[in-house]
Amino acid sequence: MFSISARPALVLAYFTYFGVLGIFVPYFGLFLDGRGLNSADIGLLLAIVTASRIVGPSVWALVAERSGKPLTVMRVGALLAAIGWLSSFADYGFWPLLCGFALFSFFWTAILPQLEVSAFAFLNDDTRAYGRIRTAGSVGYIVLVMLGGWLFERYGSEFLPLSALLFLLLLLASLFLLPKVSVSAELSTATVPFSKLIKNSVLLRFMLAALLLQMSFAPFYGFFTLYSRDLGYSGTQTGLFIGLAVAAEILAFYFAGSLMRNRSYRLLLSVCYGLTVLRWSLLAGMADNVWWLCFSMLLHAGSFAIAHSCAMQFIQQFFPKKLRSRGQAMYAGVIFGGGGAIGAYFSGVLWQNGNGAALTFSIAALLALAATLLALTLPGIKRPA
């Protein structure tokens, strides 16, 4: 099978994976609104779809671990996700949409945890190299966010099904370019049982803080484009706002390795989570001012990019090599699945078709504050250089 060297192939895989999310995440709320769903229905659908990410990562990680074929797992996941996505082309109401997107989301979870594990294996746990390659994902995201804003203004929310499907197919093609990763050598020994590791108090505090932070992101991911529209911003302006956030994310990912060197998780996470408190507070009270809104978007560099890089490195260092796939899957399932589902559901309840927007973002700020306080309890251990 044709393949290219690991780093260019990883760049393509991250670019296309997050390119799909660049269409899906910002514009999915608008798409569902265009299909006639109210905010409570949107929140419920997002919650149920996101909940499929709780179990999915662990299921696929177990398959990858037992088979020793993470690339095959990713490829099968991308193919089945594309098939599930086909349901978006039909308009038969809430339940068919729910079933189709739940299938898409479940198979989608096969990709990223295995991609992260494979990337660190290819790169020999080089955080700097990972951060720079991971910027390709941010570039893919920003390109598709900007394109999505333009398409939305011209074609309405129904641009989403075909656009996302095209990038899903590009993602599938990019996964066939990845060279084989040797998992037998990487996964040969494990001295501590997984069941014992997940009871560690440091891991539990880290996970709870990350869960609260992810819950706080739910109104931004699910309703920001609707919020921006209700404030009078155009689709192109909304795309520019999100693009500004992702531009800050790209710079942060590029320098993440240097920034994280010899700094503790307690310092890094508490600062990043604290910036998130400020970010949601600004969206709650000052989003009608374009300059404050732009400033809040720049905070994405810390609240997402550095926080995510730190979390990935924490998982890589906390779990032995044999258990990293399950560690990444647990993180993805609990944080992105559980935190995203809980946050999406309550955001939909609180949003009230835009009338509860300020309250929703204020509660998000309180969740981020609780995450900050938990992060301050982590041990002040220096990361290795």
From TrEMBL:
* Localization: Cell inner membrane
Membrane topology type: Multi-pass membrane protein
- Just give the chief location class: membrane
In this chain the Major facilitator superfamily (MFS) profile domain maps to 202-385
One GO MF annotation is: lactose binding
Q: What PROSITE patterns does the record point to?
A: MFS
Q: Which parts pass through the membrane?
A: 12-30, 42-64, 76-95, 101-123, 135-153, 159-181, 202-224, 236-255, 267-284, 290-308, 329-351, 357-378
Supply the InterPro entries for this chain. HcaT-like, MFS_assoc_dom, MFS_dom, MFS_trans_sf
Q: One of this protein's Pfam families, by short name?
A: MFS_1_like
Task: Tell me the keywords, alphabetical order.
Answer: Cell inner membrane, Cell membrane, Membrane, Transmembrane, Transmembrane helix, Transport
For this record, the Gene Ontology CC terms, alphabetical, are: plasma membrane
PANTHER family the record matches: 3-PHENYLPROPIONIC ACID TRANSPORTER-RELATED, BLL5896 PROTEIN
Q: What is this protein called?
A: MFS transporter
